[in-house]
Amino acid sequence: MDELTFRGRVGVQQRVLPVYRVPFFDALADACDGGLGVFAGQPRPDEAIATTDSLLVSRYFPARNLHLLRGPLYLCWQGGFIQWLEDWQPDALIVEANPRYLSTPAALNWTHRMNVPVIGWGLGSPLLTGPLSSLRKTARLRFLSRFNALITYSQRGAKEYADLGFPADKIFVAPNASAPRPTAPLPSRPTTFMERPTVLFVGRLQARKRVDNLLHACASLPDNLQPRLLIVGEGPERENLETLTKEVYPRAEFVGPKFGDELAPYFAAADLFVLPGTGGLAAQEAMSYGLPVIMGQGDGTNDDLVRPANGWQIPPDDPGALKDALHAALSDAPRLRAMGAESYRIAAEEINLEKMVGVFVEVLAFCAGAVRRA
After folding, report:
1. Contact 209/203 with Cβ under 8 angstroms?
2. Nearest Cα to Cα of residue 316 among 193, 209, 177, 168
3. Domain spans in the chain, listed from the N-terminal domain onward
4. C-alpha to C-alpha distance for 64 and 39, rounded to whole angstroms
5. Identical fold at 4-177+352-373 and 198-349?
6. Which SS3 state, helix, strand or coil, does residue 363 take?
7. Rounded Cα gap, residues 199 and 186, in angstroms
8. Class of domain 4-177+352-373 as given by CATH
9. 264 compared with 304, residue with greater pLDDT
């Protein structure tokens, strides 16, 4: 099928620009005749997000992020938003559909004044509870109703937006991906473990990733199933985790942060990919290397990526469930290889960078009607 190209210039607002999003924005820029500009700022230092201002095809414009409060009260103001819109003059705008970003309403006013379609991009809208839930729901729907369309990562996110009251025919699902469709064949791995199996973690080393649970779970396995554990990443918990490793599971190895092509040998060497906590887009990239996945339950992205045929979803803070999943995975190598093959199929056919970009261009077409076939 011919690829769609957007006839115009696109602007994208992000709170921050993570390294892993660069391939997506550059691929989307290739599909926009007038170019693509990304407006983003810096995270708080303790967030341990690896960011960049280097884009090969799209253009980066720095925002002045002002972070206010923390936790459920967190708010962010992005200075320079309107000035960037005036300078970049996008024909369509994509923004994070997050009411906690205080500068977004003014940007929405600008798009409506300039008759520029605006698309919201978000995880979904979980059910609100509590004494003020009705008022909060009304305010959230009022905010979302200003968008011409919504893009979410998952079917669960789409249902949440529809249940809130946003028109279902204006909700689109773009499965979250950081890696392109695999072009190499499914990696060949033996159906028996010649040595100890290798378990791989890739992500930020912070408390919510529950790497501590992974160390304890590996240590609790029978000796013949205890894997070589490779931990790839950096973050505020690294020193604590390295100390814990010496006490609990010396077979774990910390290799530091790796990005892009640097990750390839680690994915190739692994037998199983594990993200025991919340979040983790690296799972999709691991699947493109034919790896089965154990992943903590989170937003709907996990539901679409990890299925019984290619992995396990576990509660994000349940060491017992993690141990059981590891035991099941590492005690049956032929089954594990079959699950890896299914991961590869999903990454090749359903969830990859090309599919994600395609949905974004379709939504631009829906909102602006300005596309041509390449």
Report:
1. yes
2. 209
3. 4-177+352-373, 198-349
4. 10
5. yes
6. helix
7. 18
8. alpha beta
9. 264
Q: Which of 109, 44, 112 is nearest to 82 (CA)?
A: 109
Residues 6+ apart with CB under 8 A from 245: 215, 252, 254
Element (H, E) at 7: none
Per-residue pLDDT reduced to its tens digit, 32-72: 999 999 999 999 988 878 899 999 999 999 999 999 999 88
Cβ atoms of 173 and 157 within 8 Å: the answer is yes
Grouping H, G, I as helix, E, B as strand and the rest as coil, residue 289 is: coil
d(CA 351, CA 306): 11
pTM given for the model: 0.91
Q: How far is CA 138 from CA 94, 133, 178, in A?
A: 23, 9, 34
Please report the DSSP string for 118-144 in residue order: EEEEES--PPP-STTHHHHHHHHHHHH
Both ends of the chain: CA-CA distance in Å? 10
Q: Which helix (H) or strand (E) holds 175?
A: none
Quote the pLDDT of residue 374.
41
Q: 8-24, pLDDT tens digit by residue?
A: 999 999 999 999 999 99
* Residue 230, token pair as written in the block: 């490779």
Two tokens, residue 297: 């339950």
**Is residue 178 a contact partner of residue 24, using CB atoms and an 8 Å limit?**
yes
CATH for 198-349 (3.10.129.10, 3.30.420.40, 3.40.50.2000, 3.40.50.80): 3.40.50.2000
Answer whether residue 373 shows pLDDT above 70.
no
